[in-house]
Specification:
The structure holds two protein chains of two kinds. By secondary structure, chain A is an alpha/beta fold. Helices cover about 40% and strands about 20% of the residues of chain A. In chain A, the strands form four sheets. In chain A, strands 1, 2, 3, 4, 14, 16, 17, 18 and 19 form a nine-stranded mixed beta sheet that branches. Chain B is globular, with a radius of gyration of 19 Å. The chains are: A alpha/beta, B alpha/beta. Chains A and B meet through α15 and α17 of A and α6, β7 and β8 of B.
Chain lengths: ~550, ~240
């Protein structure tokens, strides 16, 4: 018997409503389509502040935080950036609550040499109001900008090499963090790929360190990113994290949230469309119609101004690996839905936001990341899609970029992709040149642009998906050029896309629709009869 | 044939980064050093006379600034006429420390450093006079300069500029010439400027960038997806 979140459609089923950028669209799926819905949000903690205090006083491994605090010590607190959660969390953000408690404790213990660093790796620098949203007005007022600032992965005077792994991966980290008596990392774990060693190893390092694992070779060996046990990215990060932790006195605080992305009035967006009551159905129709007729700017404004009422489900503190094990358990509990068997066709709606376009437009390269990177990878065990299968997505794929945030992306899409889509080729021929581009580096360092290596990383992020997926068909693209650049086909409607997927032989297809967001992951098992072919498929992927 | 092409490619130098100076790397302009020199004459009378002459030229300079940067430069630099080359050199360090260095944008040095780290030849191209730009090049740890030079006769400035006068579209030609002589491939080179009047210079390289751009350049940079950034605010 299948899980309640796995629904098989019949001839009487209502159309499904999925995202297509900042629109919600109805799609008619054929009978037999399997829809995977997110689990209902886990019950949030009743007293979050008490949970924070308990976690730092009863850590997973090592001494409690108060025992590590000494008057006159140098303390650095690193905080996850605004790339998560998505959309940004309704205030107070959990990071603010952790900081308020930790800083009060520091004051009690006479620790006043404190700096707070936004651990953004090679993401864009956050603006003041964005930092304020994360840390809260009290901390912002007291620390910003001199003692609360963005990490600078290109400030070579303020980076230091801690060592390298047995495989030659160089661990180069923020100097202030490295030279502190205690480094405290405050994480918000949105998906299982986040947190653990990745916090420091991706958030506080240089481009040189990131390229050790943000490369096509590593990405091809991730099955999936969301399953650390099957991810070469996670392996590399763990090796580097162990080197870092030998030198750093690190105390990790991780937090988990439920998947309540929408306010109560819109909570029905989690639900099976066939289970909606009359009022919910009318409201859903209204939203579909409204997003169809509202101008682009209005849609953007509405979504951008809608923080998510996520509830905090866990707070864990102490030694990095022990803490992260607890965090992952909570993530699996919220996101994983057991699913039996793979699909010939995976259908997914691409939403308006990704980790890399908060307060900006989701440009074509990020659409690719969302499709072949994130949504394809929302599995443990086996991919939802069979090897060589078809992924159908809904998105306009508009040729538009935010000049301030995504300047390096523009060249990547319009200059490099027409030359090659081969990730290895792009890595070898162009990454180094772009990563050193003085103008783009300056935009990264003094403006709010992503590092010039970032569009490359975004392309690599889709690499495991590209290796596995046979074809991608976009429904509702407003142009042909961008899908072609990305190596995709287009279809005017879902019916047309499914017709194309069936092929000339009009074969019967196993179709699965991943009804996200909110986030949902599939724990895919393969029935014994099919496991033999899947086994050889896995071996192929490994090679 | 193929071999000689390959050899030519191999011989190509690393790219150059061409930097406009006034408004791009520093917030001051050619008037600041000029004012310093005019106010540092041997007697108060000479100071008054030189300021008087320059002020008399002010309306023409204002008109020229609107129409043609080259004429503006020629009018402004005529106020140096009669100064000895020894004196120009003698005051240059103080003039640099007073009229240029304090006006450097906070992140200007970082930008030069990043370009140098990428292996680029650093070239400052400016209407500023050579004895001032030399100091700036030294301050940046060495750089080539393309700039204006006063005509000197019998040890004294005549008030005229030697040709070519560095201004406006002429900068583009000078960059092409510099690249040809130094075997830079312009497609790989970078240029940085704050002003719409430097669009010709920005357009000859493969990697133009707008730095602290004026409104018109900002619009153009957005339209063509050129990188755009500022180098901090001078306080």
């Amino acid at each position: 018997m299948s899980h309640p979140c796995v629904v098989t459609l019949d001839a009487d089923s209502a159309p499904r409503v999925i995202f297509a950028g900042d629109r919600l669209v109805e799609v008619n799926m054929p009978p037999g389509t399997r829809c995977i819905y997110p689990k209902p949000p886990l019950e949030p903690l009743a007293d979050v502040d008490a949970a924070i205090r308990y976690a730092i006083n009863h850590p997973e491994g090592g001494d409690p935080l108060f025992a590590k605090l000494k008057p006159g010590m140098k303390l650095t607190i690193a905080v996850d950036d605004i790339s998560l959660p998505l959309p940004p969390m309704k205030r107070p953000d959990i990071r603010e609550r952790v900081l308020n408690i930790v800083l009060a404790m520091c004051a009690d213990y006479g620790v006043d040499d404190i700096e707070i660093i936004i651990a953004l790796g090679v993401h864009r620098r956050l603006r003041g109001p964005e930092i304020k949203h994360i840390v809260g007005p009290k901390v912002f007022k007291e620390y910003y900008p001199d003692r609360l600032y963005n990490h600078d992965a290109e400030d070579h005077d303020n980076l230091v090499v801690l060592g390298e792994t047995e495989l030659g991966e160089v661990v180069e980290v923020n100097k202030r963090a490295a030279e502190s008596d205690l480094l405290l990392y405050v994480n918000l774990n949105f998906v299982p790929m986040d947190g653990g060693h990745k916090s420091v190893i991706c958030g506080l390092v240089s481009y040189r360190s990131l390229r050790a694992h943000h490369n096509p070779k590593t990405m091809r060996q991730c099955h999936s990113y969301m399953d650390p046990a099957a991810s070469e990215l996670a392996n590399s990060v763990e090796r580097m994290g162990k080197v870092a932790n030998q030198k750093l006195n690190l105390f990790t605080i991780e937090t988990t949230i439920n998947n309540r992305m929408f306010p109560d009035a819109l909570s029905f967006l989690h639900k099976n469309e066939d289970d909606l009551d009359g009022k919910e159905r009318a409201l859903l129709n209204g939203i579909v119609q409204a997003t169809a007729i509202l101008p682009q700017a209005a849609r953007e404004k509405i979504f951008d101004a809608s923080p998510a009422p996520f509830g905090v489900t866990g707070v864990f503190a102490g030694e990095t690996e022990a803490v992260h094990a607890k965090t992952l358990e909570m993530c699996w509990k919220q996101y994983c839905v057991p699913v039996e068997g793979q699909a010939d066709v995976l259908v997914a709606g691409i939403p308006y936001v990704s980790p890399y376009n908060v307060h900006a437009f989701l440009n074509p390269l990020l659409v690719q990341v969302m499709a072949q990177g994130y949504l394809f990878n929302m599995y443990r065990g086996h991919p939802i899609l069979k090897k060589g299968g078809t992924m159908i997505i809904t998105h306009p794929c508009t040729d538009r970029f935010d000049h301030d945030q995504h300047a390096p992306y523009i060249d990547f899409v319009h200059r490099l992709l027409p030359e090659t889509r081969d990730a290895m080729e792009l890595h070898k021929r162009y990454e180094d040149e772009y990563a050193k581009d003085p103008a783009l580096i300056q935009m990264f360092r003094t403006g709010h642009a992503y590092h010039p290596s970032h569009p490359f990383f975004m392309w690599y992020w889709g690499e495991a998906g590209r290796q596995h997926i046979g074809r991608v068909i976009v429904v509702g693209a407003d142009n042909e050029y961008i899908p072609k650049l990305l190596g995709w086909e287009t279809a005017a409607t879902m019916e047309d896309a499914l017709y194309m997927a069936r092929g000339e032989e009009a074969r019967k297809l196993d179709i699965t629709l991943l009804h996200a967001p909110p986030i949902v992951m599939a724990d895919v098992t393969i029935p014994e009869a099919a496991s033999e072919s899947a086994g050889s498929e896995g071996a192929e992927a490994e090679s | 044939m193929l071999d000689s092409r390959a050899q030519l490619r191999d011989q190509k130098a690393l790219p150059a980064s061409y930097f406009d100076v006034d408004g791009t790397l520093i917030s001051s302009n050619v008037l600041h050093p000029a004012a310093y020199y005019l106010s540092h004459q041997q007697t108060p009378l000479q100071v008054a006379l030189r300021f008087g002459k320059t002020l008399a030229n002010a309306p023409r300079m204002a008109m020229a600034e609107l129409a043609d940067r080259r004429t503006f430069n020629e009018l402004l630099f005529s106020s140096y006429g009669g100064m000895s080359s020894d004196r120009l050199e003698l005051l240059a360090d103080d003039a640099f420390n007073t009229a240029m260095k304090p006006y450097l944008y906070p992140k200007a040095k970082d930008l030069i450093k990043t370009s140098r780290a990428a292996g680029h030849e650093i070239v400052l191209i400016s209407g500023t006079l050579d004895f001032m730009l030399d100091r700036l090049a030294d301050y940046f740890g060495g750089a080539s300069i393309i700039c204006n030079r006063l005509e000197i006769k019998d040890g004294y400035a005549t008030g005229k500029l030697l040709k070519p006068v560095v201004a406006g579209p002429e900068k583009a030609r000078l960059i092409r010439e510099h690249a040809r002589i130094n075997n830079h491939d312009l497609n790989d080179c970078f240029a940085f400027s704050d002003s719409y009047s430097d669009v010709p210079m920005l357009s000859v390289v493969g990697h133009p960038a707008a730095v602290n751009p004026d409104r018109r350049l900002s619009l153009l940079a957005k339209a063509y997806s050129w990188p755009m950034f500022d180098l901090g605010v001078n306080t």
